[in-house]
Amino acid sequence: DNSNEEYIYFMTTDKIDLQHLPLTGIPYDQMAIIAHPNRVSDVRASYDGQYLFTTQAQLGGNYLIPFYKLLEGRRDGEIFREIENLFYYSQSRHQDINRFDRQEVTQKILLSEIPFVMRALGYYSTE
């Protein structure tokens, strides 16, 4: 039963180190692991001290930039333009497409519009 043993942990930019206490200098009493492929931003122990949880720094860029790389043609491609058009059509559909006055364009669409946008893109999930 190792429940009475004590350890300390600390992090560097890319590694988590676990050190058995008391400090003896024995190399087998410590362990360093690469926690993430990029920078580790934080490490915390669980309330009972049995587990360590790590978080990684932002990967791939800000906002939607990492997702553009997943599309053929990226942000300048035909698929992106189609998604953008469907986004605006979805807003028009919700605001009554037959109105002739100026409509408000926002950065969001209603959750109820997502199935229609996905179907227009050719993805037919189950309800």
Walkthrough of the structure:
The chain is α+β, with helices and mostly antiparallel strands and 127 residues long. The protein folds into two domains: 6-56, no CATH class; 65-120, no CATH class. The chain is 22% helix and 23% strand. It contains three helices and five strands, in the order βββββααα. It has helices at residues 65-68, 78-94, 114-120; strands spanning 6-11, 15-21, 30-34, 40-45, 52-56. A three-stranded antiparallel β-sheet has the order 1-2-3, with no helix packed on it. It has a two-stranded antiparallel sheet with strand order 4-5. The radius of gyration is 25 Å and the shape is elongated.
> Could you tell me the radius of gyration in angstroms?
25 Å
Strand content: 15-25%
Number of strands: 5
Structural class: alpha+beta
Keywords:
single chain, three-stranded antiparallel β-sheet, elongated, alpha+beta, two-stranded antiparallel ribbon, 127 residues, 3 helices, 2 domains
Secondary-structure map:
Elements: E1 6-11, E2 15-21, E3 30-34, E4 40-45, E5 52-56, H1 65-68, H2 78-94, H3 114-120
Antiparallel strand pairs: 1-2, 2-3, 4-5
Condensed summary:
This protein is an alpha+beta fold and 127 residues long.
